[in-house]
């Protein structure tokens, strides 16, 4: 069983391009937690560690019931990791595998998510990767916005703080056209992604499918 600092990695919960998430236990708080560990394959990139830890720095500055809580962040033998609240009910993406949601259920999820997104924007942040896989669910079914790894400081209508032109980051099916084409993006890109996600919740499918050109110009 792998040990990172004071945390034992008990069970692999999922993994993505940047990191893997494990179930663990916080010995001081005496509660289950999730530990996100940077993928070993990224260790050769000297910028990977700072990018990975930036997610914790971004979220640590936020305080909202609809945004995941960060408890700890550290580096063990060159391996950075983030300790966050454990969301036991899985992701919205997993829930949508069973098909579209009833209108009342979709609205019950959309309203608090919109509130969390509005709060993040008011703090000058754009998420840039809003999608069902990054919406986690608490035991009571309430949604939590997670994975701020691509978030950037952005103020609406402030060109000096826009994402640099040419930097295409995010998930294709949920990208606003300007984000897809590498143009400067602001909070409106998140609003677009939120609309795509709401459409998917209500219909069980994406509004645009196919190759990149079809999605872009569909």
Notes on the structure:
Keywords: ATP-binding, Kinase, Nucleotide-binding, Transferase. It is an enzyme of class 2 (transferase). Helix content is 30%, strand content 22%. By secondary structure, the chain is an alpha+beta fold. Strands 3-4-5-7-6 form a five-stranded antiparallel β-sheet, with helices on one face. The chain has a two-stranded antiparallel ribbon with strand order 1-2. The radius of gyration is 17 Å and the shape is globular.
Task: Please outline the helices and strands.
Layout: E1 3-4, E2 7-8, E3 11-15, E4 19-26, E5 31-38, H1 48-60, E6 70-76, E7 79-85, H2 92-96, H3 103-122, E8 125-126, E9 135-137, E10 143-145, E11 152-153, H4 177-180, H5 187-203, H6 212-217
Helix pairs in contact: 3-5
């Amino acid at each position: 069983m792998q040990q990172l600092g004071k945390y034992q990695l008990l069970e692999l919960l999922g993994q993505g391009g940047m990191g893997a998430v494990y179930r663990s236990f916080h010995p001081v708080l005496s509660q289950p937690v999730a530990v996100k560990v940077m993928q070993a394959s990224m260790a050769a990139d000297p910028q990977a560690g700072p990018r990975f830890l930036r997610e914790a720095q971004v979220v640590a500055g936020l305080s909202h019931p609809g945004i995941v809580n960060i408890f700890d962040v550290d580096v063990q033998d060159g391996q950075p990791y983030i300790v966050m609240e454990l969301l036991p009910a899985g992701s919205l993406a997993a829930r949508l595998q069973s098909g579209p949601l009833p209108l009342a259920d979709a609205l019950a999820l959309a309203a608090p998510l919109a509130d969390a997104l509005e709060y993040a924007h008011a703090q000058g942040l754009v998420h840039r990767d809003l999608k069902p896989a990054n919406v986690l669910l608490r035991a009571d079914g309430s949604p939590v916005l997670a994975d701020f790894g691509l978030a950037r400081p952005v103020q609406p209508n402030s060109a000096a703080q826009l994402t640099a032109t040419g930097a295409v980051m995010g998930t294709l099916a949920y990208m606003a056209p300007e984000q897809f084409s590498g143009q400067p993006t602001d909070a409106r890109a998140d609003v677009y992604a939120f609309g795509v996600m709401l459409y998917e919740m209500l219909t069980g499918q994406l509004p645009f499918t196919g190759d990149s050109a079809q999605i872009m110009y569909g």
